[in-house]
User: Fold this.
Amino acid sequence: MSTQVATLGEAHPRQYHGLLDWLTTTDHKKIGIMYLVFALINGWFGGSLAGLIRLNLYNPDWHIISPALYNQLMTMHATIMIFLVLMTSFAGLGNYLVPLMIGARDMAFPKLNAFSFWIMIPAALMLYGSFFIAGGAAQGGWWSYPPLSSLQYAPGHGEDLWILAVILLGIGSIMGAINFLVTIIDMRAPGMSWTKLPLFVWSWLVTAWMLLLALPVLSGAMIMLLSDRWLSTGFYRPALGGDPLLYQHLFWFFGHPEVYIMILPGFGMLSHIIPAMSRKKVFGYKGMMVALWAIGVIGFMVWAHHMFTAGISGAARMWFSMASMAISVPTGVKIYSWLASAWGGVIRFTTAMKFALGFIFTFVIGGLSGLMLAVVPFDIQVHNTYFVVAHFHYVLVGGSVMTLFAGIYFWFPKITGRMLSEKMGSWVFWLFFIGMNWVFMPMHLLGIDGMSRRVATYRPEFKPMNQFISEGFIFMLIAGLLFTYSILKALTQPKDAPDDPWDTQAIERSLEWETASPPPAYNFAEIPQIR
Amino acid sequence: MEPTPLTTSSTLTSGALAAKPAGAAAHLDPHLHAPVPSFWPILLAGGIGAVFFLVFLVYLGVPLAGVLLAAAALYSLVAAAGWANTIAVERRLMDRLQTQKDLTRGFFFFLASEAMIFFAYFEYIYYTRFTGSVWPPAGMPKLETSLPAVATLILVGSSFTLNFAVKAFLRGKQAAAKNWMLLTIAMGIVFLGFQGFEWGYLNGVMSFTVTTGAFSSAYFIMTGFHGAHVTVGLLMLSLVYWRMEKGEYNRDYHMSLMAAEYYWHFVDIVWILLFFTLYLF
Ligand SMILES: [Cu+2]
Assistant:
């Protein structure tokens, strides 16, 4: 026994302080915080690009931004928001909360966890740096279809840097997915059977499974794209017998699951927040669980609904149309379960709950326009118009971002030990909620009227509506400023948040509320036993 | 000497086993549970990021980029080795059984993600084949199959010899295990030799290069990607052989041996599919 103690003492890990502590940490909580801070910073960059886009579209004749620069802004806005904001902030909350919720001391591979975060930094540097090289950043959109992304039409090196950055981000996400899968399967506290697993953890299990299977396909497609550019191979070049359409298949085989990767963790968070704020147990736990998996499996079978106008066969159109509609069934199960979770409860309209209920409203709109787009004739009519832009912003902003706000307001006290101002929170919610509907709702009409997306200008008759939209952006901007200020303000205040600030005693609460706010490095003094 | 596995220290990392009574004092001592800080993840991430960026600079023809790329690659290897070494050191502190279980599971998920990259290439070639109007595309020579068939037999055989090595090891026959291991490594090298010869022959004699057409592009990226995997597999097998030589494995702790075996079988299965797809079909 004495030798064992000696061994432990001798190999006792060195602790670093200050900046070095953050650079060397393998603590899932600190890594989670770094993800969240990184996402907030990138959110400001990505949001600023959106602001420039809206500024340029305020008047079709201003031309303050050249069409080439507009393409770069549009491409990078999407790339940053998807890879560096949404995926990153869900990864941050997942990192922070999953080990706590399953009663573990850390992730299964703490160093790999740190690696998954740090590999994003060179990728981000390459993305942002590409603005400053000759030819500027990539202009091919976040989908980067050949031949638009081929050497012939995209001779600038921004495209090369973009491809390399996406492959790097893929490596980090795949490693993160492996970590989440092993952690959730192997590290659950004794007694935490699969049917006692919190829904946020379930949502991350499904998300990790989708990341694991979808991202390598993107990497494969990117390697072929890069070799067409660098080695003059013929993968996507018809002159050599290749097929550019195949890129679209491979890209959307990743791209559609990616949509769920960016929303499922949000679904999981709502399944905690709505019951807690309604003082009820979550309604239909098993249905929610099955619905998550249904989305996680059917989500892999619908990719070509992005390609209805690209020349796929009639049979394929039919299949992808029907499969896409089928996804609304599990999604509907979730919506009804959340509503039933709140129904008849003692609802507390905290900021987290406001965002959660606001989410249900906006996400249903995004889901309905998605159903419309799954109908082939309608899709062909509005393809490449602002209707599509309206749809996916309702899903990603009205969906993912709203759940993120809800999640941050809900778990901020746990993460920092401080409460966010509810008064400011209410302002953040109403400004953001009104702003986002103001901005994206009219885009449905613009799309039906035929305004093309991805273009730096538009026909004169769309001017009034575009000015209206650009004005609405100011509301979202103020909401963002207020939110950031609110966080900075809270961080200057004393740590006075209780362990269970939302008083979840009454309901079935998850384990993160059992430990201190913020939790100690080792999470739990004793590994909890679940009965 | 084989370090004794510290079963009582299971509280350090593993949630699932931590419930075993390990002494209340150990539970309440926060230091025992503090995550171990490490410089390696950030150092390796920087190295890999530098490799990616320098590949780009080499493509641009920037002077000295090649040298820097080699340096960055070497640096990344050192960082990876340093990381691996800390695992070996910390392993003594952890619950080794649980760690091995985690690593094995993680490794299977890693293989699944590898399989999905190959899936993208297979999807590419089958899609192009069945939607393209002419197959094989104009100017494509018919690939010679007899030599690749021999190479295939050698690679498939090496999966068996590796299996014999593992079985011998589990029966405690160390010498036989090492011999089978050496034979496996030799067969892998011979396979790579065949592959190199084939590439040289196609490039030089048949003028069948990456730019000949979609099929040749797919041929080279698939066999090249597979060859890179064989090379990694050979490195893993050599490392395992070295650790066998040092006597680091025992009946309970031989996770890297099993990982190398699974990896090798995986590479073998992918090759069988490749051989069928590229040469026979
Ligand atoms: Cu889709």
Chain B touches chain A through 81 residues (CB under 8 Å).
